[in-house]
Amino acid sequence: MVARTRESIRYARTREMRAARSAPGPLDIRAHVPILKHMLNHSDTLDRAFQALADPSRRAMVERLARGPASVSELAAPLAMTMAAVLQHLRVLEASGLVTTAKQGRVRTCAVDVEAFGAVQSWIDARRREWESRLDRLTRHLIDHPEMPSRKDPK
């Protein structure tokens, strides 16, 4: 009877340990998978947008398109590059979702997709709020603790 009780206790402890290991804790990656998946999906869009905006020529095109739709020829006029290079840059902007193009007859018209810039803007706003909050906390800390010694000149 005693041996059987020991076995059942061991079995119960083993079961509890397995359950404890399988339950997501605060540092368990499985608890954060939905958030991570959302960030990864979102980061792909952001990566393409920031990669497209990394080039000065593409930024110039986007700035021109911010004033309104324009043909490829209008976009190419101020740029010192071939039409093939302009088209390649437009393909990158189009693949990122920042610019849309439509062809009417022989003219390809480009326009900014405002919704695509919304994702970039919301990401930037979130970073801004985060840093403003951190700086506000630092300011409050410095005001609440004025007795902290200042750094001395290392001379």
From TrEMBL:
InterPro entries: ArsR-like_HTH (IPR011991), HTH_ArsR_DNA-bd_dom (IPR001845), WH-like_DNA-bd_sf (IPR036388), WH_DNA-bd_sf (IPR036390). Residues 40-150 form the HTH arsR-type domain. Gene3D superfamilies: Winged helix-like DNA-binding domain superfamily/Winged helix DNA-binding domain. This is HTH arsR-type domain-containing protein. It comes from Gryllotalpicola kribbensis.
